[in-house]
Amino acid sequence: MWYGQYYHVLDNKDRFVLPAKFRDKLETKKFYMTKGLENCLFLFSENIWKEIEEKLRSLSFTKKESRFFNRIYFGNASELEIDLQGRVSIPSYLKKMVNIKKDIVIVGVADRIEIWAQDEWDKFYKMNKKKFEEVAENLF
After folding, report:
1. How many structural domains are present in the chain?
2. Residues 6 or more apart from 125 whose CB is under 8 A from it?
3. What is the CATH number of the domain that holds 130?
4. What does the alpha-carbon distance between residue 2 and residue 108 come to, in Å, rounded to a whole number?
5. pLDDT for 109-126, tens place per residue?
6. Range of the domain at 126
7. Which of 68, 66, 78, 4 is CA-nearest to residue 35?
8. CA-CA 20 to 30 A from 113: which of 7, 9, 39, 57?
9. pTM of the model
10. What confidence tens digit (pLDDT) does each residue in 51-104 have?
11. Taking Cα atoms as reference points, which of 8, 14, 10, 49 lies closest to residue 28?
């Protein structure tokens, strides 16, 4: 659904323009953003969010790991809308969690979009690009 990398700079209101190729594939203007893994933010369309929400709600709340994950995942979630200029605002608490200052990388990862601080993305990519073939061999 979403693919590629796009480099952007946040404006003075912590907004970025969602790439047109991403906007064109949306059914609604509503998004959900939450703390992701490996120090990035996850951005989901409304439909994908609802699918994941249903799966996570089906986990037993009596299990400690389930409660822990759901607290972090849903407790840090924010419902957002794209404005008329195609901009999305990053809530300040999420921005702090993943060390975003101004420069970001927007990464399409099939059913989700990841938002990275550019320096964090560069570090992640540099550390992991050599592992790509090894991981591919083990996955497939």
Report:
1. 1
2. none
3. 3.40.1550.20
4. 5
5. 999 999 999 999 999 999
6. 2-139
7. 78
8. 57
9. 0.91
10. 999 999 898 889 999 999 999 999 999 999 999 999 999 999 999 999 999 999
11. 49
